[in-house]
Amino acid sequence: MQQIVQVKGLTKQFKNLTAVNDLSFSVNEGDVYGFLGQNGAGKSTSIRMMLTLIEPTSGQIELFGMDLARNRREILRNVGAVIEKPDVYKYLSAYENLELFARLSGIKPTKKLLMDQLEMVGLAGRANDRVKTFSQGMKQRLGIGIALVHNPQLIVLDEPTNGLDPQGIADIRNLILHLSRDLKKTIVVSSHLLSEIEQVATRVLIIDKGRKLVEGNATELFDPAQTIVELQTMDNAFALEQLKASPWSTYLQAQRNSAILLKLNRTEIPALHTALAAMQIQLLSLQPRHSLEDYFLQITSGNQHVDTYTN
Amino acid sequence: MWTLIQIELYKIFRRPRTYIAFIAVAALITIIQFGLKVDGKSYADFLMKDIGGTMEIDGNIINGYLICYIMLQLLLVHVPLLVALIAADMISGEANMGTLRLLISKPFSRTELLLAKFFASTVYTLLLLVWLAILALFLSMWIFGTGDMFLMKSSYVVLLSENDVFWRYAGAFVFAALAMVTVAALGFFLSIFAENSIGPIVATMSVIVFFTILSTLNIPIFNALKPYLFTTHMISWKEFFDIQVNDANEAIVGSIQNPQKIVNSALVLIVHIIGFVGGSIWIFNKKDVLS
Amino acid sequence: MRIFFFVVALLISYTSVQAQDMTALVTKVKAKLDQVNDYEADGNMKTDVSFIKAPIGKVKVYFKKPNKFRLKKEGGISLLPKGGVSVNMSTIITTSDFVALAAGEAVIDGFKTKIVKLLPTNEASEIVITTLYIDEPNLLVRKAITTTKENGTYEMQMSYGAFANFGLPQKVVFSFNTKDYKLPKGITLEFDDNEKPLSEAQKLKNKKGRVEITYSNYVVNKGIADSFFK
């Protein structure tokens, strides 16, 4: 399976803020990749770096197997994006906006193509109306239409449901599913709402304060049986060393508040206990969280602080 | 690149705000023409006050050629604002509208985008000048007729023969276009730094007003700066309307008193344009688009 | 003593005879000029004033006895010295009430001329005094210096060609005094201050101006309506 997106060691340092810190992840062909994190976690910054709106301080981004910095034009021909609240030219109609951006994306659109696109996003009836008269939901749909008009392979949606009513949110969700399942597109979608990601994503990355917290298969992550376990030990450095050298290394996620995080199935907790003892790790506490949702809500509540990224 | 330019031109001329400038120019010019048509003689008498002590002036002073000159003197102080309305909005307006991030994520370079935008704002500026020429020159010629052109400088007057005027206007308008493109380049440059339109427009006008004041004041400490201020050179279009005289003090038809000054001013303006546009491209290529 | 008085009497009578001769001379010149009832001519007008830059302009000149005069530039603007436009000897020697006094001789343009001072006897006359330099053999005025009440003093120098018989000059050069001309730079929007201060000689030169008209194609006595001069 082709890796559509590969990000290694991505970092963005603004003046007094490290918005993204040594972030690495990959997106496979056909994935609906959920980028999950509270507001200000670094999701938008990461996405903007993927779209060359922001220059990374360090790190590498490859899309379609090509280095983004060197093959920008070729890559972006095959990428469609909706970045936060999509804004278009309010003094033009929906049709005119779509045509304009289609041409900017490198295609020569026919009238039929444009109307089909508007039909797909439910705006065919308002094609000639000025966008000034559109609701937020309609603008969002137009934004998605613009992102798709040139038939890109990779679609990046940054907070696509912001400001939408429940119907609008449902529409977007259905559209994402349609794009993924029927049109076989690869989608990266970011949100601060777990419920949205849960319903569409095939793989998920949780990001907090610019760092990766958790990454994995959505089914597994959202499996109620899956849990995040927090370990507190007498000597975390020793414990980490031991765990990395053991088969439990694949379960390691991150360190937080001098707690080591592992993601595992509940049924594996007793085995972990035993392994810790065998490794002579002096355990102070072992705290399983009920579900990824609990965990996500807790860490994104603002009380917790993430220290070191271990993976 | 051509697609980009077409799209940028399309955006400019589909926007209602663009036409404000054309309407404003038309209104200003027709009001002046109306006033002079109704009461041109009083104005002529006022103009001739200083020279009337020595000479009698016979003939039609208030003709289309002189009126166009008067209007250029007035308007080329105000047209920069109309140019800035569009040029200073080119990047900041996109940021304000939220469309900039979408543009940047498209498969063309930022350099191409900026060059296309600047080219489009130059086309707008040139069209505005053409409109100005049609109204100020051709319409004045039609309403007031043509004739010799009588001009008053601060320490001498110039009389240009009727058949020696039109080519000077052609040159003057080309030069004025260059001056206005310099204003556009400044507005464009300032537009990079803002995410709203008003800031760069006001900043452009402020710079022009400030520099014009420095250009005008005859304070020695500022005199060293004057040659480098583009506002000093923007008014060199007037040099087309000064004529050389031979040893017998006869004006040499078809000559310009100081053609080198025109060339020098043009070069200074071109350097400014290149500087502003080059600076815009350099800065914008490094800028993080957070809007 | 008697010889002294005799000589003085002779001198006085000689002078009287001379005064009488000047009137006669002026009258003869006027008579020659009076041959012309009207004329029109083409002219090239050159303006040489320090603060005026003007090209040579083509003008048309019209005259009708006794003193109607018009100078026209087709579609153009002409600059003429104030008051001194009546570039015609007929208009200057137009008054019959004058006193003509001899004032010596001079050579103008290689021609020997008699200097005659004309004083109008009419108090209301605009002209205060006119000095004529008359080429007696040809009955032509080579130069005239006129002082007026309102418009100062101006000088005219004439040279003649084909129409000398009619007393119509081929070329007339006016010289006159000019006032200073200056407009504030704020009005004219001139920002550079490249003007060098003028030398005294230059300032003096700037006080005088000249207008030179070269005539051709005289059409004499063909008839011009009065209404033309309104």
Task: Give a written overview of the molecule.
The complex is a heterotrimer of chains A (311), B (291) and C (230). With 311 residues, chain A is α/β, with parallel strands linked by helices. Helices cover 33% and strands 29% of the residues of chain A. Chain A contains eleven helices and 14 strands. In chain A, β9 and β10 form a beta hairpin. Chain B is mainly alpha-helical and 291 residues long. Chain B has one domain. Chain B is built from eleven helices and three strands. Chain B has a two-stranded antiparallel sheet. In chain B, β2 (149-152) and β3 (157-160) form a beta hairpin. The radius of gyration of chain B is 21 Å and the shape is elongated. Chain B starts with a helix and ends in a 5-residue tail after the last helix. Chain C is built from four helices and twelve strands; from the N terminus they run αβββββαββββββααβ. Chains in contact: A-B, B-C. At the B-C interface, β1 and β3 of B face β1, β2, β5 and α3 of C. β3 (157-160) of chain B pairs parallel with β2 of chain C, so a sheet runs across the interface.
Biggest sheet statistics of chain B: 2 strands, antiparallel
What class would the helix/strand composition of chain B place it in?
mainly alpha
For the biggest β-sheet of chain B, the strand order reads 2-3
Count of all domains of chain B: 1
Task: Please tell me the overall pLDDT of chain B.
Answer: 91
Total strands of chain A: the figure is 14
